Amino acid sequence: MKMVLNKRDLERAFSPIKHRKSGGRRSLNKSHKGGNSVNETSSSMRVYVRIRPQNPKEIENNTRSIIQVVDENVLIFDSKEETEPFFFHGSKQNCRDLQKKQNKELNFGFDRVFGCNSSNEAVFEVSTKDIVKSLLDGFNCSVFAYGATGAGKTYTMLGSNTVPGITYLTIVELYKQMEILSSEKEFNLGVSHLEVYNENVQDLIQPSGPLHLREDSNYGVRIPGLSLHRITNADELFALMAKGNKNRTQHPTDSNAESSRSHSVFQLYIRMTNKLDRNLKIMKLSMIDLAGSERGSATGCKGMRFTEGSNINKSLLALGNCINSLAGGLKHIPYRDSKLTRLLKDSLGGNCQTVMIANVSPSSNSYEDTYNTLKYATRAKKIKQMIKKNIVSVQLNAAQYSKVVESLTAENEELKLKLRTYEAQNACQKSTTMSTVQSNHKEKLSAPYQELEAMNTEISKLVKEIKLLNWRNHVKQKIADRLPCLSINNIQLDKRLNRIKTSMRQLQGRESSFKQKLRETIIRRNDHFERINSLIKTLDQDGTNTELNQHIAILHLQLELHEKDVQLGHYQQLLSMQQNELQSEDLIVKEMCNTLKQYHFLLQGNNITTEEMASHYDELVHKLEGFKHISWKKDQETNVNSNFTFSFAEMLRENLCSEGIIRVETANKPPANITVTGSVTDCTGQDGLSLSTVLTALPDNELSESESEAGDNGQCGERSDALRSTSLGVSLSANETEAGAEGKRDVKSNSRVILETVNEDGHQLPVSQTSLSENTEESEIQKVRDKTMECCGILKEINLPVDSMRDVVAECSVTPLKVHCDTAVQNGCSTNCSLLNSTFLLPKSSPSHVQVKSPRKLAEGNSTQSKKQITVNVLDSSKKRNGSTDLKRRLCNKENRVAGMKAKQSAVYRGAGHDSGKDHTFTVPVLPQLRTSKPSTPKLTPISKHCRPVTNQVSGKVAYMKQRNQLNRAHPYIAN
Ligand SMILES: Nc1ncnc2c1ncn2[C@@H]1O[C@H](COP(=O)(O)OP(=O)(O)OP(=O)(O)O)[C@@H](O)[C@H]1O
């Protein structure tokens, strides 16, 4: 037993390693092996020590070596020197000089000690080669180099141009291993590289200013804004690594001419998918080169270097504290003390297999640094880590199985097909004794065509990317246009708009870089194509080799097919994006409409709606109805085609008949009869209504009505106005399209009507131009006429003296008035008031008032209720202003309350003469005065279809609108 002589000996007695032991390593290796076989295991941090050779300065100063490597696991720090004989008063003494500082002689044991002569390859073989295996087994791994400044960390991690460091060697090994596994696994790799400089995190590959750290319970520490670069081969990875290292902050100090003044973290993300079961593992390899700890006095740093040094020391101190807490098994680990420890949280105490390489200098000049590093390393060895494989999905679900089976079956089929083709080709070759020359030719063409195919795919991909970016830009622009309409906070609006603009600029930047790439690829493709052409020329100089020509034709077809396939996929992707966008826009519109309606009612209820607001609101409603916007599908507008599709959405309204007139203009004189058939399909594209009619072309200005064969539910009335054009009036009554007792299909607003024109022989009729004359005066007249008919039917049914009205009307020139009623939905009635949107005509000298009985009795069969009437006075258009006032006054006199009013053109009244205080409101726009040249007798839709149970609450308005165009055509107005 050794005698404890003084304090230093005492320290030595309690030094971490008293005997030559390598238990740490053995236990680690054991657990490490275990880690590969199970999903979760515990492991000690592996710690290696590397001693660099003395540098020329140290050699020059003849400094003492303070490290003695005992064997591959043990070193002695500050071993006792071969003491020179000590003389006192001229005689040699047996004891030592007590005035001289005694050597520590501490033994340290590590997983491996690399001496001065060890190479980076040797370090890699022992320290990180195994890491690659663990990584591909699904474990996260970290390697970090720790040590004082100038101790050789960067040399170990990165090396130099001639001596590659362990990062390079590890990645080469990783690629080797991935190559071996490539038949079973798919790999996707991504890289990021950052530095922590003066407590700021910065991206080294795409420097963009300080980044922030975020902690996420699922993903640990994340750095939003840090660029992640996809790589496809080792060269790309090394290029990125080199770029990152070039950007790293380095400054010369007294200790190191190329001192790294920041901590560098290079991370490689691996996504590994098992081809068979599609199980996915995501792993992360972090290679960390820490900045070196330093003593200001030793390094002679001043100013900026001093600040850097103190930041480095601060973060390393925090790292030391974390290592101590982890080694001591404490619950609280002070990760948050520095950016570095927050970043290394995963590697130190998380789910990660970590290797620490402690770099030390052997020179007595670095005595304290080396001692501290060895103590750090010893503490770090005690850290136990629970590591588990990062398997995203271990078990397959049924859907995955079916997918795997599907893909395997498809592959199988493909192989079978190839085999058959091959056999057939073989047989064919035998029978035709195809010359080897031919097959040689084909072989020579195969690779260039494959290359061409790859280029085409790349082009398609780039085009898709450009389109995607374009679309995203367009969407952003739309948002930017819309935002100011709603936003009320200008500061926030500016912020939002700026954000959008920045992101649009980024998108545009990306778009132009894609465009550049596209141009380059197209040039490359064209060059390549030229080369193929010249190759073909050399193979078949006189162009008579038919077999070769056929083969080339097939190759071209295959190329085209492949391209179309790729494009199809891209278009589907684009389409689904656009559909999503449309859906979300649709939702916004609906929500906005609801909100607007609420606000409108609120204003109206408080009697503060201005005339302008009310008419704007009406205009919006009108626009939503879409009556004026029926148009042909754009791309079919000019097509010479007899099939055309148009949206019927605008024509369908909830409760009343809707119609449009379609004009079919033929290039030549149309045949006598044209059959127009059509179908209305609902939004699911299923069969719905069908309609059919025969148009007869008649000479100019001669109106004709021929028999209209309505299909199930559709009605078509037809007219012919000119030799070269034929118009078809199509009307669909909502009551006819409703799902209901008859079980008919509900035709909603996104239904479509498809019409087809066929002549007498059953041939499709070429149509040079198709246009919709819906907006023409004729259609206007037609519309009013139809509304009048319906309205009269309704009025008759609800006991309005239609006959007397008609008599009066017959005597006078007419001013058509449109009655518009809106009702709330109650008592389970899903329909609106029967008067909704109805139009009827009143003469200029109409009776002073029109009595409209409540149609309630129709619904309830209660005759007493029908006697309760409301009265609405409708004045003719020549007395608009006065009339409006009159009306108001009269209604007020009759104890009706004025709810809101438009002084000049419209007014809103609420009638209260109803049985239970229910209100009725009418919109009465004054339409242009019409003159009729030839009244017709239109049919009325059976009243029973129109009349619905009337709801308890009816609200609405009376509106006078300006007289519009003077129409030339006359108008039939009242029918029985
Ligand atoms: N094992 C070694 N063999 C030969 N030269 C070495 C070795 N280790 C380090 N060196 C040399 O020592 C010098 C300092 O090394 P390096 O820059 O790697 O130190 P460092 O620990 O990264 O320092 P800092 O923390 O200041 O960046 C370099 O010139 C390097 O070439």
Number of folding domains? 4
**E-strand count:** 38
Binned strand content = 15-25%
The CATH C-level class name of the largest domain = Alpha Beta
Separation of termini?
129 Å
Query: Structural class, from helix and strand content?
Result: alpha+beta
CATH architecture grouping of the largest domain: 3-Layer(aba) Sandwich
Q: Which hetero ligands occur in this complex?
A: adenosine-5'-triphosphate
CATH fold descriptor of the largest domain: Kinesin
Q: CATH H level of the largest domain: which superfamily?
A: Kinesin motor domain
Low-confidence stretches: 1-38, 393-398, 627-757, 765-782, 794-976
Mean pLDDT: 63
Topology:
Layout: H1 7-13, H2 23-37, E1 40-44, E2 46-51, H3 56-60, E3 67-69, E4 74-77, E5 86-88, E6 91-93, E7 106-109, E8 112-114, H4 120-127, H5 129-136, E9 141-147, H6 153-157, H7 166-181, E10 185-197, E11 200-203, E12 210-211, E13 214-216, E14 220-222, E15 229-231, H8 234-247, E16 250-251, E17 259-260, E18 263-274, E19 280-289, H9 296-299, H10 303-327, H11 339-343, H12 345-349, E20 353-360, H13 367-381, E21 384-388, H14 398-432, H15 436-486, H16 490-539, H17 546-605, H18 611-625, E22 643-647, E23 658-666, E24 673-681, E25 689-696, E26 715-722, E27 725-732, H19 734-737, E28 752-759, E29 767-772, H20 777-797, H21 802-811, E30 814-818, E31 822-823, E32 839-843, E33 850-853, H22 856-860, H23 863-866, E34 869-872, H24 880-893, E35 897-901, E36 906-910, H25 943-946, E37 954-955, E38 958-959
Parallel strand pairs: 2-8, 2-20, 9-19, 9-20
Antiparallel strand pairs: 1-21, 3-4, 4-7, 5-6, 10-11, 10-15, 10-18, 11-12, 13-14, 16-17, 18-19, 22-28, 23-27, 23-29, 24-25, 24-28, 26-27, 30-32, 31-37, 33-34, 35-36, 36-38
The structure holds adenosine-5'-triphosphate.
Adenosine-5'-triphosphate is lined by residues 52-53, 55, 147, 149-155, 256, 258-260, 291-292, 359.
